[in-house]
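thread from #wetlab-drylab

HS: before we spend reagent money on co-crystallization trials with manganese (II) ion, can we at least see a predicted complex? here's what I'd submit
DV: go for it
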Amino acid sequence: MSPLSIKDVIATAPRPFSGEASKLIMEAYVFAEAAHRGQKRKSGEDYISHSLHVAKILSEIGMEENTLVAGLLHDVPEDTEVTLSEIEKKFGSDVALLVDGITKLGKIKLRGSKEEYYLENLRKMFLAMAQDIRVVIIKLADRLHNMRTLEHLPREKQERIARETLEIYAPIANRLGIGEIKGELEDICFKYLDPIHYEETRKIEETYLHEGKAYMDRTVAFFHSFLAKEKIRVTDISGRTKHLYRLYQKLKRHDMDITRIYDLVAIRIIVPGIADCYEALGIIHREYRPMVGRIKDYISLPKPNGYQSLHTTIFGPDGRILEVQIRTKKMHDEAEYGIAAHWLYTEKSRSIWRNIFSRQKHTVVPLKELTWITQLKEWQKEVGRDDKEFVEGLRIEFFKNHIFAFTPKGDIIELPEEVTPIDFAYAIHSEIGHRAVGAKADGKMVPLDYHIQNGQVIEILTVKEKKKPSRDWLSFVKTSTAKSHIRHALRHHENEFGK
Ligand code: MN
């Protein structure tokens, strides 16, 4: 395999760069290559290969040219003789501010207890994010390439970096809606943190896919002709399998029984418009019986990170259970590229993007999709730079209506605020919800309608035998997941046993 070139980096962008932008990116490459010359990565490769890979990831998700330039230069001030002011002179203040932001973000030190450490890191990410979200996106690209090449580091470093990535970077990629980066980060972390289960999951998937792959290809072809016959306009149909880490999380809850995972194979149907999504769903349901409780309309009710799609699980061709996801091309790109996709779809998008993040006073164009970032910046202006107050407020703003709670094993569960241990239990799994009898927050017993605080470790006490949820729970649970599971279980119970 020939080494990555700057031409590849530029060519990989989903929307071609202008001649001017390409020239700027080339110049940054020449500059970075000269600065890093003679330095080697732990893998033995020239250091510049890291900078190129970081820039390539940024190019893939459609970032604008200054972000790529800063990606190429991101390790220059820290690791070479060249200073930030030289970068500013050559590439301007926008690039210099980005590079400075990444350098500062790189100085995170591990300290204190786990939660304290987590919040401290989150705090720094918030600060960077409020200053310029591009800094965080470059940092994610940097981390992703470092994770891809983690094999060259000593064992204990691998573990520390993988843990930090799983706790800080993957959730942030998720919050920014960059599904591809989140999925890959989690899978690499999984491999280093839990190699035994990683292997086990990989083997299960491999065995299953051996027979599943042919089925998937057949099903994709079948849906093509089926939807064409029904005169549904289709842009693309593809099959996908689950990321390994997510798959393992599910397998754990189902006794490692892969036949009980219904969304292992999913068919993605991309259609031109929103109306086509619902039409396709209707046609599919007419032909194939949907599974109760598994039809999800994330178009009317997007996920907190903005994800939109219709999901349904059907008893599909050959009687196999199959998840079907239906969405428009725009929704699809947003799911893959997250926040970066928002301006792929905006007229004059690149300049608007720059305006939002430029430090000039009157150029802010409030894009609907980017309101939360704009709010963040507005708010920052009002409060000024008082560190403590700023961070406190940011936490509230950025995760408005959101908290993070931990399982006793340290898994992070993101939930709306004022949720109860019952919501938490159902967020993990419906059976844990049904069987819940008590809860502890940070080791202390709390009532089931307790309001969970951000950062708490929540332990759900359950009974072994099957049990139906209590009807009272409906009066205090907050999430729709919990509500629908409880209602469904109660209904099911009544049908089976009479009132
Ligand atoms: Mn780096």
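DV: The radius of gyration is 24 Å.
HS: ok that's useful, forwarding to the group
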